[in-house]
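queue> holo job accepted (pyridoxal-5'-phosphate)
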Amino acid sequence: MDESYFDNNANCPMTTQAIRSYIMGCKIGNTSCKTKLAEYGKQLIKEFKSHLANEFSSQSSTYKVIITSGGSESNSTVINNYVYEWKVKRGLTPHFVCSTVEHPSITDYLVKLQRDEVASVSWVKPLPNGKILVEELISVIVPNTACIFLQSVNSETGCVQNLAGLQAHLNVIRKTLNKNVALHVDHVQGFRRIKYPNGVGDTISISLHKIGAPLGIGVLLYKHDIVPLIAGKQNDGKRGGTYNIGAIVSASEVLNTFQYKPMKHYKQYLLNQLSQRFIILPFMKIEALTDKPTLIVFSDEECLPHTLFLSMVLNGKVVCGLIVKEYMFQNNFTIGTGTACSNESQDKSNKLGSMASSSIPDVLKTGFIRISFGSDTNEKLLKRFAKVFNKFDFSN
Ligand SMILES: Cc1ncc(COP(=O)(O)O)c(C=O)c1O
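queue> job finished
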């Protein structure tokens, strides 16, 4: 990956050391075998799990750890658990509450369950900055609500969700109504970016490639017993399949070494550079689109400093996010885009899983682009980025 990578929310590039650990880990082979290396591998797996369990557990709540193939499997395991517990074992139809901006490994699964009448779902839309209101999540709870699904940080805008506030409401419901509504937190975008509120969530998903480990390794933390999605002996019988030991060794290395560098001023620095060509307009301040080149910014002060989510307007028209992304790509800069213009013709349900499901006017959604910073972002690079970005024109 070269230095002009501005899509760190999609994947955090591996360091040379993480790649070395990966190669070393692969030499261990199957940890079920009776070899000296396998003994060593088993010890590393134990340490990896206890590292994460300790990071999330507190005096009042203890988590156990399942190693999965990624955030998607962790999320799907949780949904499968409730379907199994409610529908299969008790013959009851579960109800789920889910924000419309959860990852597709949640939204697509719930859409299928809803369509096939296996479960019912209440969808809660985000505000234009990606925030999900706790009151809205709570207001749709019904007697058969099994679980609420909420990300810790929105993957497109970087908005930090009020998890502690949500858990506090659920604790009150538990105490006063004697009703258990579980909370699943998709912490993939927030891991090591925010200070996680202690003990929040019955289950928590993490994907290690977001902090520089190899692709294909995730974790599911759980407080109460869970039904395996993949049967087998590994992970205390909670997730079968030979351990991906190379990825585990590399992820262990990353867990001990990875730190987000402070990047608070980069967002403003980049916006200052972009203001040489564009009017920078926070979404909440829009009145009408003018002919002046404008960037409409959706991420605000409730969002983390590593992400800018915006739409470009030129000559009074929103520029398709995919075109801007392609232009930047041709000039050696990688950025992300939401569902953008390619999804214009698709039906409403396909907008789930992204900010395309928000109440932002459709015309602005077509322009969505995401610029996310990483550990090698610096002012010099941002200046080069802005120089290219500021030259965008339809004739490019
Ligand atoms: C919020 C969120 N959840 C889940 C996932 C899926 O993780 P994985 O790619 O490890 O399956 C992602 C990946 O982009 C994500 O951003």
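queue> Residues 70-72, 103, 105, 151, 155, 186, 188-189, 207, 209, 218 surround pyridoxal-5'-phosphate (CB under 6 Å).
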